[in-house]
Amino acid sequence: MYKKIVPVILLSVALTACGSANKEATPATESNTVATNESATTAQATTTEFKTYDADLFSIDYPASWKEYDTSNLNQPSVQIAFVDPAPKAKFADNLNVTMEASNITAKANSEQLIKFYETSATYMENFKLIEYKDNDNNSGVLVGEYTQPETKENVVLTQYLVPSNGNFYAISLSLGKASYDNGGKAMVDQMIESFTLNDETNTNNEVTAEQATSSAQTVTADMMTEVVPNVVADGALDDSTYNYIVDNSNLFPATTAADKKLAKAEVDSTITSKHLFKNINPYLDTMVSLTGDIIQVQEQETAYGTVATIHISDENDNSIVGIYKGSTGDILDGDNVTMRGVPTASYSFENVGGGTTNAVLLTVSTIQKN
Where would one find the signal peptide in this protein (predicted)? Predict the structure, then answer.
């Protein structure tokens, strides 16, 4: 139906492929490395020299022997930089990358979502085990876990330094083979984390206030839909009016308490049907609607936003509505008749397995109820 939601932060895991499949790093077209850092990390009487990558937003030290990895083929502008060991001693090459995306989520909240995803993911990692999560200065946090790289079966230690800063969220992800990590690599990781510095003066105060944390909770579903819509609609984007409606009614997306479910029902404009939405969705992008139909397919997947369900129904007018629900649908299964309440989000079309295309309306779901 649509591309699987893969949070930008999970590129840290995807990039491990550059360490296992490619023994030589792909040269980057340009480097912002400016100096050699003589402060060194000692591992079994060997000295690791560091260079400093200095960009407009941040700077970070990395081993001088590592090479910049060309991330342009990832088509992910949120990946700021990546470095990889070009001469690994094992089947897995140690590497680091830095991602940055607009988000007010706290490090603690993000770590909880990531851990849940890692523990259920088998595409990029197997047998993930959390070693520790600890809060750091300025509301940042450090997550450390161990997993098995599926292709090489090498054990890998993943360390992520999670740094919220004035509406941006930085993830510094360091993946080292376990043997490398245990043989001086941990000290090297600590050096790189310690060196990370935000250069933008507007980011020097990295405190996340309680108000900002509350804001993060209010925007999480809206932020999720900003990622979903471009994956569903070619060149699409979540409309500002829909984003604002979800944020203004964040307790309804999803509505999980009896009181909020009652509020969601009261918000519904019962005069709007799927016929109105398929004729022209634009007047209703900030309006709660109620749509009933038989489930063609319901799927759930674990994401950094938690469990996310996709519900495809066909209503009495044979119109296809695809709902995105931030949560589990419980015992609802294919073939069940359900009512979804939510805000119309986009109109689009998708290819059918048997040929042809189907026009559909995308709905950000507040409640789903089996009839």
Answer: 1-19
Rounded Cα–Cα distance for residues 49 and 61 (Å): 10
Q: How far apart are the first and last CA of the chain?
A: 24
**d(Cα 311, Cα 256) in Å, to the nearest integer?**
17
Asked whether the bond before 7 is cis by omega within 30 degrees of 0, the reply is: no
Tell me the per-residue pLDDT of 246-271, one tens digit each, with 9 for 90 and over.
999 999 999 999 999 999 999 999 99
Q: How far apart are CA 92 and CA 94, in angstroms?
A: 6
Residue 303 has pLDDT above 90, yes or no: no
Which token pair is 255?
């509505």
**For residues 186 and 250, what is the distance between their CA atoms, to the nearest angstrom?**
41
The superfamily (CATH) of domain 8-203 is: Mog1/PsbP, alpha/beta/alpha sandwich (3.40.1000.10)
Sequence spans of domains, the chain: 8-203, 213-370
Calculate the alpha carbon distances from 19 to 48, 177, 182, 324 in Å: 19, 10, 18, 35
CA angle 124/308/79 to nearest 5° reads: 45
H-only helix segments in 28-120: 107-120
pLDDT bucket at 76, cuts 50 / 70 / 90: low
**What is the model's pTM?**
0.54
Residue 310: count other Cβ atoms within 10 Å of its Cβ.
Answer: 21
**Which class for 14: exposed (0-12), middle (13-18), buried (19 or more C-beta within 10 A)?**
middle
256 burial type by CB count under 10 A (0-12 exposed, 13-18 middle, 19+ buried):
middle
What element of type H or E holds 242? helix 240-248
From 317, 319, 363, select the one nearest 340 (Cα to Cα): 363
Between 350 and 180, the higher pLDDT residue: 180
136 pLDDT band (50/70/90 cuts)?
A: confident
- The CATH H-level (homologous superfamily) assignment of domain 213-370 is Nucleic acid-binding proteins (2.40.50.140)
